[in-house]
Amino acid sequence: MGHKTIDMLVDDWSRVAGSKKSQISFEKFVDLMQHLPPSDLQCLFELYDVDHNNKVSFDEYVLTVVILMDGTLNEKLSCTQLCGLFLGHSRQYLMTQFGSGLQLFL
Question: In which domain, by residue range, is 58 found?
């Protein structure tokens, strides 16, 4: 994942959420994913909402994007399981598993 993509993710998140510490609701997620058809967004929101609290955090957003863009086919197919690992593991573990692209977000 290149710096241009990373900058775009951070800019998009900042535009909608204001801060990396903020969580976004489904309505703000629709704004974040404005390039996708609204009919597809509920399912996608559920994928990004790793902890199922009806909000997406910046960490959930980034981890899901990294896996979908840079993950292996198996990782992409099991994305929800891999995203769930994030909640219980350290940054070091994530860096080992997903590489330097993730370092820029954590």
Answer: 3-103
Q: What is the mean pLDDT of the chain?
A: 76
Give SS3 for 104.
Answer: coil
Q: How far apart are the first and last CA of the chain?
A: 15
Tokens read off for 34: 């404005």
Q: Which amino acid is at 102?
A: L
* Digit-coded pLDDT (tens) for 8-19: 888 999 999 999
Tokens representing 104 are 């820029």
CB-CB neighbours of 15 under 10 Å: 12
Tell the burial category of 33 from Cβ atoms under 10 Å away from its Cβ (0-12, 13-18, 19+). middle
3-state secondary structure of 24: strand
* Radius of gyration of the chain measured on its C-alpha atoms: 13
CATH number reported for the structural domain that contains residue 50 in this entry: 1.10.238
